[in-house]
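Tutorial, part two.
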Amino acid sequence: ADIGRVEYDGEWCDGRRWGRGLQYDRKGGVVYEGEWMNNDPVEKSVEIASELGWLHNRIEELVVMSWCGNAIRWRSLDLRHLHLLKSLKVDHDCFDYVSDVRIIGLSELERVVIDDNCFTVKKWGCGDDPNRHFYVKNCPKLKSLKMGRYSFSDYTVIEIENVDALEEIEVG
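Running the prediction step on this input gives:
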């Protein structure tokens, strides 16, 4: 503002940069062009290292670090709103109490890697809870699905449908 040049040209919400926009330097050169959220450029790669916060629908790569999402209040993980997601990586010992996992309709998803001891309460049980379900459906670009040892070990339903590009499934 002090040199009479536009600093930002784009969408606003409640006085903050939000949506599509361009940020310029003092000489008028483009510093950043793309999506904004809450006055910050949107991160396309998100790493969660503690309890889960909120996620936005522009994420392309999601990494959940070890021991996350284990609060008993986490019962469901539904990723269908992450339309641009290309890669999901869940490190070991996450989401113990989640009993419903839905990876459905993600047209850009290429890779899912779930490490050991995830999505399971009874770490060495064997499919004895009829209310625990894992769905991977309608993900046309999914090439690789890997699930580590003891992950989903107490689930009774695992459905994998309409994943025509799937080349690799690794379990345990």
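The two ends are 58 Å apart (CA to CA). In part three we will examine how such features are distributed along the chain.
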